[in-house]
Design a protein that fits this description.
Layout lengths: L1 H15 L4 E8 L2 E3 L7 E2 L1 E5 L2 E6 L1 H7 E8 L4 E4 L1 E6 L1 H8 L2 E2 L6 H14 L6 E6 L13 H6 L5 E5 L4 E4 L1 H7 L10 E6 L2 E8 H4 L2 H4 L4 H17 L2 E9 L1 H12 L6 E7 L2 H10 L2 E2 L3 E9 L29 H14 L2 E6 L2 H15 L8 E4 L9 H5 L3 E4 L1 H19 L6 H8 L3 E2 L10 H9 L20 H8 L1 H6 L17 E4 L8 H5 L3 E6 L2 E2 L2
Parallel strand pairs: 1-6, 2-7, 8-15, 9-10, 10-11, 15-16, 16-18, 18-19, 19-20, 20-21, 21-22
Antiparallel strand pairs: 1-4, 2-3, 4-5, 7-23, 11-12, 12-14, 13-14, 17-18, 23-24, 24-25
The protein binds zinc ion.
């Protein structure tokens, strides 16, 4: 018996060859959810040169590997690094440097914040704010610029709604940009009262001011990107899909990654513009360790909150109004053909049922049937049930934002009515159709926290845990699917699945330590879940 025992021990010893292998980092005493096909769980893993070399039981890994560093996870859960499938990484960073109007409860409070900011920053010419939402006010009417003109007769002011699709500007701002009150802007709306603009702009009328936002100099953009990265690492994000960047911003990100300053992975969607497309037609896609550029971001319509989403039937709360189509079908078709010809993925913002139908039709015309080009519909928010099967028919990936469901829930039905609301924010229906959904936040429209995405997807509750029982819970995702949506499915949606998205041998060691097992939480315990550490390529970045 004793003899057998020592033979057995010897066998184990030989098999593990005590510290026979080198590693840079060993993570152990963990519940590692690999998110591989079966979501195999492990206790420990060894990392070398930024990649996972082995996963296994605690003793096996600790015995086999001599490593410079050990990270004791204290029995906590480890997941692949979170990926935000649709956000505005640079825009969020720049916003951090703007007047913060989120959480204001009246137009009065917005004005107070602008006045205070203006007084504190006398050197700034333009006053740019972002984040107001009239749905949070007791007076839910859209604001105008009457008071703004009195307060700032000469200094230009631009205040964007939380979704970026509407803004109020004062007279001084309109004059500087040369916005003609008589002109009409295609795909945009300049609201007028008795023929005079009120300063309220929608969609492409806001875009007229893009040059002002883009005026941020390189130093400001660098500061913004580093600020955004810091905050993303703190919530467990190791990769972001930025839904719309121009050539200059992409080149800046590339430069900062080469300098070693930006370590977060960036899947950069190129903003649909003639200059950007001409540039990438010439140089082709970019595939680097931390940067991938092989997709074009297109806008089909506006947002539901500002009634810019393009609907088949009129808005339930605005007679005869269908929303805005931001470009012609010919244009969408032309971009689709460009994408197919140049090896780029096409990712189109579609909120309303009509916008979704229009673009699924354009995709179908160009793609012809099933394929592995992974074109995406961003948001896929309001869909006619009859159009949903088109995702499977043309292999289109729905890229959705669970926090939109819980943020819009309180007012979305006013816009859509009792019938259409049933097929809005229907993430589980989409998952069943396509097999995968890519999950994101659209930050800064929403907060950046992937754990809130998880709660909104699984429990359909907002940051306050509301509504009780969840918003239309029949379209909740399972905890495992939500985590897949935040990791491996996002990797697939951005062609990164060979490198990241799951913890498997050979893949990059992008991972996050969370203080509880998200596959076992209930709403109460999920609310206080926290990210404890974040690693990119095996390097601890938070
Ligand atoms: Zn977006």
């Amino acid at each position: 018996m004793r003899l057998f025992h020592s033979y057995a021990l010897l066998a184990v010893f030989l098999a593990s060859c005590y510290h026979s292998q080198e590693a840079d980092l060993v993570i152990h005493n963990a519940i590692i959810h690999s998110m591989d096909e079966q979501n195999t769980t492990y206790q420990a893993m060894a990392i070398r040169d930024g990649r996972i070399v082995e996963l296994g039981p605690e003793r096996q890994i600790l015995n086999r590997y001599a490593s410079e560093r050990r990270y004791d996870a204290g029995g906590q859960a480890v997941f692949p690094g979170f990926i935000d499938g649709h956000c505005h990484f640079l825009g969020y960073g720049l916003n951090q440097l703007k007047i913060d109007l989120q959480g204001t409860r009246s137009w009065e409070e917005v004005l107070e914040r602008v006045v205070a900011f203006g007084a504190a920053h006398p050197q700034k010419n333009w006053l740019i704010g972002r984040g107001w939402d009239q749905n949070d006010w007791s007076m839910k009417d859209f604001p105008d610029n009457d008071r703004l003109n009195d307060l700032f007769p000469d200094r230009p002011v631009l205040l964007q709604r939380v979704d970026g699709h509407a803004a109020v500007v004062n007279h001084a701002a309109m004059e500087i940009v040369g916005l003609d009150p008589e002109a009409s802007v295609e795909g945009g709306l300049m609201v007028k009262r008795e023929g005079v603009p009120t300063g309220l702009l929608m969609d492409n009328a806001v875009t007229v001011f893009r040059s002002i936002f883009d005026q941020a100099d390189e130093a400001t953009k660098r500061e913004a990107l580093l600020e955004a990265q810091r905050n993303c690492f703190a919530v467990g994000l190791t990769m972001v899909c930025d839904a719309g960047l121009d050539v200059g911003s992409i080149e800046l990100i590339q430069a900062m990654q080469k300098e070693g300053l930006l370590k977060i992975r960036v899947y950069a969607m190129v903003t649909d513009s003639p200059e950007n497309l001409a540039h990438f037609a010439k140089i082709g896609p970019i595939e680097e360790e931390r940067l991938s550029v092989r997709s074009v971001k297109v806008y089909a319509d506006g947002a539901l909150g500002s009634r810019g989403a393009l609907l088949k039937a009129p808005y339930s709360d605005q007679k005869d109004h269908h929303g805005l189509q931001l470009a012609s079908r010919e244009h969408f078709l032309e971009v689709a053909q460009w994408c197919k010809g140049n090896g780029f993925q096409m990712n189109t913002h579609c909120i309303g049922d009509s916008a979704n139908a229009l673009l699924l039709g354009v995709y179908g015309e160009v793609l012809g049937g099933q394929n592995d080009l992974r074109w995406r519909i961003e948001h896929a928010q309001v869909l006619s049930p009859a159009d949903r099967p088109l995702f499977a028919q043309y292999s289109v990936v729905p890229s959705v934002q669970p926090t939109h469901a819980t943020s819009d829930g309180p007012w979305a039905e006013e816009r859509l009515g009792p019938d259409r609301i049933g097929s809005a924010y229907a993430y589980e229906d989409l998952r069943k159709t396509m097999g995968i959904v890519a999950l994101g936040t659209d930050f800064p429209v929403e907060g950046i926290d992937p754990l809130q995405t998880f709660r909104s997807a699984v429990f359909r509750t907002d940051g306050q845990g509301l509504p009780e029982g969840g918003y239309r819970p029949e379209n909740a995702l399972s905890a495992l699917d939500a985590l897949r949506g935040m990791t491996i499915w996002n990797a697939i949606a951005s062609f990164y699945e060979k490198e990241v998205g799951s913890l498997e041998v050979g893949k990059r060691a992008d991972l996050v330590v969370v203080d509880r097992d998200l596959l076992k939480v209930v709403p109460e315990t999920a609310r206080s879940a926290k990210v404890k550490a974040t690693f990119v390529n095996g390097e601890q970045v938070y």
